[in-house]
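Feature request disguised as a bug report, sorry. It would help if multi-protein outputs had a clear separator. Right now it looks like this:
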Amino acid sequence: MLRRMAFVGRERELAQLAGALQRGAEGKTSRVAVSGSAGVGVSRLLDELSSRMAGLPGLVVVRGVAREPTRGVPYGPISDALETAMSAASDDDLAFVVGEAGHDLAALLPGLVARLDRLGINRDRPRLEAPEQLASRLTEAILGALERLARGGVVLLILEDLHWADPATRAFVLSMLRVSRPMSICLVATYQPEALYRRHPATEMARALADSDLVTAVSVEPLAREDVAALVEAQLGEPPSSSLLAAVMEGSNGNALLVEQLTVAASTLDGIRLSDPFDQVLGARLDALSPDASRAVRLLAAARRPIERDALLGLRLPEGRVAARALPEIEESRLVRVDGSRVQIAHELYAEAVEELELAPERHAVHAALAVLAESQPEIAAWHWARASRLDEARRAHLRAAAADERLDPGETALLHYQ
């Protein structure tokens, strides 16, 4: 029986993050930029930080992830993170955290509107609501809510994969670099340097994080050979043979995620060559799954974001629906992650590899089904319609998204959809 991925070789990076969190607990606003290539172990590092600090009195973890389909959703990772944290608050605490920012936070967190109304929290529009003031007012609403969440403790604000972030989220991160007042907040922003090119929309933000003296830079590098050996041993429950270790090292180049998948492949598939391209290794793993499980993995790879379990089972494709019996199998495969009622592809590397294996008509059909599922979220629907090469539907969804986004970001995000 293979075990879950262990934590190895990152104690130095963990100590840097713990030091930044301590500065935040002392009321000194701290900012950390964590960079690393896809799959190298950035999310696993943050999981470990959150796990080890879980019992710290006064610590509130607010964690959100930017994803490719949501890069047109204003404040996407911030609103997801805040809504999760505030949903866990008691009624009295929620009223305190919202404070006088009911109107702006309700626009940012629509999932909390019914509860805010039940508690009688004021959501009236501000008397003065100039469009050019909206970004600064929302920034202050978010910062105020985070400061009140801390309540004498410290908020660990983790925003992951900001190379996919929407314009409003990137602007918020840049504003955090300009805030001069002390706050009990530790911001951890992560991104993949290799995803950025000269005209990439996140390049300005990445440069600002790299150039600021206020930011602690943490670079997560590939694992050394001894750490790969420890990771494989932790998965297998016994030391790997020298030939297996050499093959995993060659196929992964120290990338922790690839180490895990290659170890699984070597343990479950006969005749697999670990030095083959990763998409071929992953293809062999997909072929070993049942048709229902393979269909579910392909759906989640195209979605690139969490989906409710019932929604996944209800999606209709030309070859049929996903059966419920596939869910335990795909979770056991480690290609998929289950979090309560939601399921998602475990990593974007898996998503990219799975989609590369599909023919265009198959890929288009999956994205079209996901676009219909996301009809109430036009920003996401537009992304899927475009991936399905249904350009008329994509155009209509982008226009609906632009109109909706003017409530939160009438500037860059709305313009992105109009363009």
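(second protein starts here, but nothing in the output says so)
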Amino acid sequence: MTQLYVRALEVVGRLLPIDLDLEPGRVHLIVGPNGAGKTTLLRALIGLLPEARGEVRHGDRVLDPGAHRRADVLGWLPQTSPIEAGLTASEVVATARFRFQEPLAAATTAARTALGSVGLAHCAGARVDRLSGGERQRVRLAALIAQATPWWLLDEPSNHLDPKVQLAVLDEIDRHAATGGVLLVTHDLLPIARWPTARVLGFEAGRCVLDLRADDRSLPDGLSRLFGVAMRREPGGAVVVDAGRR
């Protein structure tokens, strides 16, 4: 497993220079108020913002700019993304394997395996534009699995999903974090209880202002300052808004 290093990564007017050493084998939770720069960070890392400056390195290798050139290291799951009308779920997922230069049959087999891992094997031949919003999000997750990158960059991956499917998505993240690395943007603080050893990175106004383990005793106070609302730790480890305090 290989570390991901971020050096002086910035997007003028949106993200101040960021330096991070990101460890594989764990989940990194990126939290903060709306407009704090969380999604901008992921988009800059993946190479989707030509105006971004700085260096992204995977071990000793400096990643060339551009999403296609980083596709063997970084996989991205956005909150929403357009899916071309008329494509089947299997076809959408197979396109995520463009970097492998393999026969179509091999890509299709890998796509069907990935769809099965997210519980959508029965939808392989279905048109994606006719699936529900939650099913389309699971197709995107299957595409990420099929891309087979060591690092996942996830932006609110469980949005629009029912509780059972949310748990299935978190299970997939667990499996990936066992051998790779995960950066997860979330407004839902429940993952803090699920992953007590996760690293919580708090963003505000384009800066990383908080960097603590999820089980750190000072995390509720740090999140209270970050979000401007009182928070507390529950016995099970979850951090929640403290409705009795201001």
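Even a blank line would do. Unrelated, but nice: Residues 133-147 form the longest helix (15 residues).
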